[in-house]
Design a protein that fits this description.
- There is one protein chain.
- By secondary structure, this protein is α/β, with parallel strands linked by helices.
- The protein has 8 helices and 16 strands.
- The protein has a single domain, classed as Rossmann fold (3-Layer(aba) Sandwich), CATH 3.40.50.1820.
- Helix content is 20%, strand content 24%.
- An 11-stranded mixed sheet has the order 2-3-4-8-5-9-10-11-16-15-14, sandwiched between helices. A 3-stranded antiparallel sheet has the order 1-7-6, with helices on one face. Strands 12-13 form a two-stranded antiparallel sheet.
- The radius of gyration is 19 Å and the shape is globular.
Length: 367
């Protein structure tokens, strides 16, 4: 297959509730910047509202010798389904967690690996096989679960609850990848990172604190740790080993309410969103506070270095412990990683694809 080949297929969505514009999450349904609510128009990152549940692309899309996309796989003993985006000879795996109210398909959308065009009932899905074919990184996108009777698909991370043990599931997923038993198409791979956006990033933080042995690198986008993991929290962060961590935060995140609150130790998810299915506690530790009081202290017992300003003032980066723990504030970014419907996303404001950011950090810190 030529490296730029794009695989496409068209499917009919059964209903609006099964629309495959599923990058939605609780946090992305914020009233700002586009005044959407959970039951209203699609939110700023181009996703669907909260009640748009997981969709399926159904089956195995074979892109030839370079790339395959395997959908709706399962791991014995767990209710979660997951999709695998598989290059020909993967040497690394990234497990990417969608945000609250979102879906596994939406995770692929956010990284730009899965692209939808058209409207229901005729939606065309294409995959960025050029990127996948040019890299040796496979991606696994699991589907978060929801509390009974709701559509708040998410993760159990002290901010929201999925009513299942996601630490156990993600640990088992990692073990299956390392052991080569996850899927017959995926060989045993030793290097695994976990990443996520919003509530998926918050789950990434819980894993860094409570299950560091499961992954080799942790990357969170707009997903700070719950206050329950803070210094005085009832589940205070005490990792058995200290793994590399990269966090991205928008300086004008209307969901986390960072604008004007950058120096506040606690951020709180917008009340409009916190009153939605699955929420447990909307209070989060400011990423910089966590970086200073927990991350650097536990990783290298060092003193936080002076941050650097980059991209003409668009970013501020705290780079500590020999690069093992990093925090990037994107000055004018909102809650979005990417997406044409969000004016200030991490990608639009930095000029970089977040898929490249996370894989480069992964490779550098876990060679």
């Amino acid at each position: 297959m030529k490296p730029h080949a794009i695989l496409a297929f068209t499917f009919a969505a059964i209903s609006v509730a099964c629309s495959s514009s599923p990058s939605a999450e609780v946090a992305d349904a914020a009233p700002a910047p586009d005044a959407a609510t959970v039951d209203a128009a699609p939110p700023a990152d181009g996703g669907a509202p909260l009640d748009a549940g997981p969709s399926t692309d159904a089956g195995t899309a074979d892109a030839g010798p370079d790339v395959r996309v395997l959908t709706d796989r399962k791991l014995a003993g767990f209710p979660h389904t997951f999709d695998i985006y598989l290059p020909r000879a993967p040497k690394r795996v990234v497990v990417f967690l969608h945000g609250g109210g979102g879906s596994k398909e939406g995770g692929g959308d956010q990284l730009g690996l899965r692209i939808e065009t058209g409207t229901a009932p005729n939606v065309t899905v294409t995959y960025d096989t050029a990127w996948l074919g040019a890299h040796d990184v496979a991606f696994v996108f699991p589907q978060g679960q929801a509390k009974g009777g709701t559509r708040g698909f998410t993760w159990s991370n002290y901010v929201m609850s999925s009513d299942v043990d996601d630490v156990a599931f993600l640990g088992a997923l990692s073990s299956a990848i390392r052991g080569g038993t996850l899927d017959g198409s995926l060989p045993a791979i030793a290097r695994i990172a976990v990443s996520g956006h919003s509530n998926g990033g918050m789950m990434t933080n819980r894993l860094w604190c409570e299950a560091p042995q499961a992954f080799d690198a942790f990357i969170a986008f707009a997903g700070p740790a719950s206050v329950h993991l803070g210094v005085s929290g009832d589940h205070a962060c005490a990792p058995a080993s200290q793994k590399p961590y990269l966090g991205y935060i928008g300086g004008k995140d209307t969901v986390l309410q960072t604008d004007g609150n950058w120096l506040q130790d606690v951020w709180t998810v917008s009340p409009t969103l916190a009153n939605t299915p699955g929420f447990v506690d909307p209070n989060l530790v400011n990423e910089l506070t966590f970086h200073k009081t927990v991350r650097v202290t536990k990783t290298c017992a060092g003193t936080v270095a002076t941050p650097s300003i980059g991209n003409g003032g668009a970013t501020t980066t705290w780079n500590d412990c020999g690069g093992k723990t990093q925090l990037v504030r994107v000055t004018n970014a909102d809650h979005c990683m990417s997406g044409a419907k969000c004016t200030h996303s991490f990608e639009s404001d930095t000029g970089r694809r977040m898929i490249d950011v996370l894989t480069e950090f992964f490779a550098a810190q876990a060679p």
